[in-house]
Design goal:
The complex is a heterodimer of chains A (about 110) and B (about 110). Chain A is mainly beta. Chain A has no helices and eleven strands. In chain A, β5 and β6 form a beta hairpin. The relative contact order of chain A is 0.33. The mean pLDDT of chain A is about 95. Chain B has about 110 residues and is mostly beta strands. In chain B, β4 and β5 form a beta hairpin. Chain B is built from no helices and eleven strands. In chain B, about 0% of the residues lie in helices and about 60% in strands. In chain B, strands 2, 4, 5, 9, 10 and 11 form a six-stranded mixed beta sheet that branches. A five-stranded antiparallel beta sheet of chain B has the order 1-3-8-7-6, with no helix packed on it. At the A-B interface, β4, β5, β9 and β10 of A face β4, β5 and β9 of B.
């Protein structure tokens, strides 16, 4: 079954404690990205990757890091989380080169930073 | 820059038809997607338009006018399970798979 898997689904952490949210896809997609979703603001892209070892900033990258060492995995790293990073996070993947290619989303990670 | 506008909320009755509009302003337009998102869940793909006209898929249809920067999603024979947020998203040339989302339209279907 084609899917994007994120873990954990829910996370409560304290300010400054490093955390990683994992994302894995089984569709051999080149393009992977992270979004955060906040009320009234919609989905905003944090970082994206067009292939292994190729990553770039999206629209709201401050306070986040990513890596793409393997094609299937694209973890999101918060080195020093702050309360303004409390949000619902989604990982997504799609094919590159096909503008009609739909994005497949993970189940979401609800992060609370206290 | 880019801008995508959708109504924040809509209410409709079970069995009825509802039209959700989306207007966009963007350079390098390369297609428009509609996604459905139930509360707390992942967005799921509904439709894609890149050429002007209507795309029909069962109870759902999507329309695009590139010259007007306008799209709508039409939902027929509404069911209670259609209560969800509907997201309009634009793809741009040379941006890979990046999608620019509107804030979403929360649709409530009432009996």
């Amino acid at each position: 079954e084609a899917q994007v898997t994120q873990n954990p689904r829910y996370l409560i952490t304290v300010t400054g404690k490093k955390l990683t949210v994992t994302c894995s896809q089984n569709m051999n997609h080149e393009y992977m990205s992270w979004y955060r979703q906040d009320p009234g603001l919609g989905l905003r892209q944090i970082y994206y990757s067009m292939n292994v070892e190729v990553t770039d900033k999206g629209d709201v990258p401050e306070g986040y890091k990513v890596s793409r060492k393997e094609k299937r995995n694209f973890p999101l790293i918060l080195e020093s989380p702050s309360p303004n990073q409390t949000s619902l996070y989604f990982c997504a993947s799609s094919l590159i080169g096909d503008s009609a290619a739909e994005a497949f989303f993970g189940q979401g990670t609800r992060l609370t930073v206290v | 820059g880019q801008n995508i506008d959708q109504p924040t909320e809509m209410t409709a009755t079970e069995g009825a038809i509802v039209q959700i509009n989306c207007t966009y302003q963007t350079s390098g337009f390369n297609g428009l997607f509609w996604y459905q998102q139930h509360a707390g869940e992942a967005p799921t793909f509904l439709s894609y338009n890149v050429l002007d006209g209507l795309e029909e898929k069962g109870r759902f249809s999507s329309f695009l006018s590139r010259s007007k920067g306008y799209s709508y999603l039409l939902l027929k024979e509404l069911q209670m399970k259609d209560s969800a947020s509907y997201l309009c998203a634009v793809n741009r040339y040379n941006q890979g798979g990046k999608l620019i989302f509107g804030q979403g339209t929360e649709l409530s279907v009432k009996p």
